[in-house]
TrEMBL record:
Pfam families reported in the protein's UniProt record: tRNA_Me_trans, tRNA_Me_trans_C, tRNA_Me_trans_M
GO annotation, cellular component aspect: mitochondrion
Protein name: tRNA-5-taurinomethyluridine 2-sulfurtransferase
Catalytic activity: 5-taurinomethyluridine(34) in tRNA + S-sulfanyl-L-cysteinyl-[protein] + AH2 + ATP = 5-taurinomethyl-2-thiouridine(34) in tRNA + L-cysteinyl-[protein] + A + AMP + diphosphate + H(+)
Family: Belongs to the MnmA/TRMU family.
Source species of the chain: Coemansia asiatica
Gene3D superfamilies: Adenine nucleotide alpha hydrolases-like domains, HUPs, Translation factors
tRNA-specific 2-thiouridylase MnmA-like central domain: residues covered: 254-312
Keywords per UniProt: ATP-binding, Disulfide bond, Nucleotide-binding, RNA-binding, Transferase, tRNA processing, tRNA-binding
Recorded GO MF terms: ATP binding; sulfurtransferase activity; tRNA binding
Length: 413
């Protein structure tokens, strides 16, 4: 594989603008010519690239753009959920049909890889254990780490042979720096679509083979227009907003109740009054409305007690118990493989960074200190609402995603 090592700092490198591209509403130029300035220097005509395809417009345009550049493209569809076990709706079969249709249009090979068992053991069962303990995990982050950029890469290489690159339709960017021999992860240029949050646990050795062709594009201004230009049937397909194994028409707590035994417990006020009953610690998360009948004003969950199987609620959404400036997180993962300067030892003063606790959240200023080799302590400039154990604290230095840690403890205001 060919790599271009960049010596400039990560804060200034590779910030292309797509605004001038988006204004070209009427053009006869090919996509390869129009988008020439956004390509990663590493990918070259003739290289083989496997593209993870879901049937949606993003991965379809990814395959089209790579093909337009002269790469040998093959589509890979990952099947990770057995619809026979699902009583609701899961569009995996329809998605596979869409992938086949797009690949036929582009005249490229497509393959389906069955990873149902791997997904169950490495993602779903792990998430279930966390939910049962009252935590709030993110299966999508775990899936990217363990499956899409882990098992899938290995399995595809084993079955089809090695490739120069692996590509997906994520809105993110990778660059090479002197500090990170493999690759550094950066935000996508489209702030409304940036998906670096979901990639914050991916290993650097996997990223070195990855390209994100959509990283410098706008979903609404560029990607859908390219899809129409290419004659792709899914150019106007709506985005899937639900987790595949749940579907978009089901309540998440009802789905979890099919896999986690219900253990009803009390919902209590700060003064100890019983307000109502929950069906299990998994059924509500911190910051969520408690859904207690008989009250005109909403109650909000601010804490859970595993030992007594109780949830605690307050009535005012602005109540200090729902907010925190102080977060302790463990299971730290640094994408580069090592902690950044300022967090290499426990006795350092720390780093001023930004962080996200959930996807699409505006970057939040915080000071991060290392408390052990596996844990960090973050103090935020502004109070954060509804922070739950099990959520991911994703850290950034500018647009550079450093990695993430699992939230273990919060201190109310």
């Amino acid at each position: 594989m060919r790599f271009t090592r960049l010596s400039t700092s990560i804060a200034t490198v590779y910030k292309p603008s797509y605004k001038h591209i988006s204004r070209r509403q009427h053009t006869t130029s090919s996509p390869a010519a129009i988008y020439h300035d956004i390509w990663h220097n590493e990918a070259q005509p003739g290289d083989t690239v496997y593209v993870g395809m879901s049937g949606g417009v993003d991965s379809s345009v990814t395959a089209h753009l790579l093909q337009s550049k002269g790469l040998n493209v093959q589509g890979i569809f990952m099947r990770n959920w057995d619809t026979r076990d699902e009583r609701g709706e899961c569009p995996s079969e329809k998605d596979w049909q869409d992938v086949q249709r797009v690949c036929q249009k582009l005249d490229i090979k497509c393959h389906q890889v069955d990873l149902v068992k791997e997904y169950w053991s490495s993602v779903f069962s792990v998430a279930l254990d966390d939910y049962a303990r009252g935590c709030t995990p993110n299966p999508d982050i775990l899936c990217n780490k363990e499956i899409k950029f882990g098992v899938l890469l290995h399995e595809v290489t084993r079955r089809l042979g090695s490739a120069d690159w692996f590509a997906t339709g994520h809105y993110a960017r990778t660059i090479r720096t002197a500090r990170c021999a493999d690759a550094a992860l950066c935000r996508g240029a489209d702030e409304k679509k940036d998906q670096s949050y979901y990639l914050s646990r991916v290993r650097s050795r996997a990223l070195r083979r990855v390209v994100f062709p959509l990283g410098s594009l706008s979903k609404t201004k560029d990607v859908r227009r390219i899809a129409k230009y290419a004659g792709l049937h899914n150019a106007d397909r709506e985005e899937s907003m639900g987790i595949c194994f749940v579907g978009e028409k089901r309540r998440f707590d009802q789905f979890l109740a099919e896999y986690i035994p219900q253990t009803p417990g009390d919902i209590v006020a700060q003064d100890g009054r019983k307000l109502g009953t929950h069906q299990g610690l998994f059924s509500k998360t911190v910051g969520q409305t408690a859904g207690i009948p008989g009250w005109q004003q909403k109650w909000y969950i601010y804490d859970k007690d595993i030992a007594t199987n109780r949830m605690f609620a307050v009535q005012d959404r602005l109540h200090p118990l729902l907010y925190t400036n102080d977060i302790v997180a463990e299971s730290v993962h640094w994408i580069s493989g090592s902690a950044p300067k300022g967090l290499e030892t426990n006795d350092e003063s720390g780093l001023d960074l930004t962080a996200q606790i959930r996807h699409m959240q505006q970057p939040q200023k915080c000071t991060v200190k290392r408390t052990s080799a596996d844990s960090i302590h973050a103090v935020f400039e502004n109070a954060q609402f509804g922070v739950a154990n099990g959520q991911y604290l994703v850290l950034y230095d500018g647009d550079h995603c450093l990695g993430s840690a699992v939230i273990k403890q919060t201190k109310p205001q």
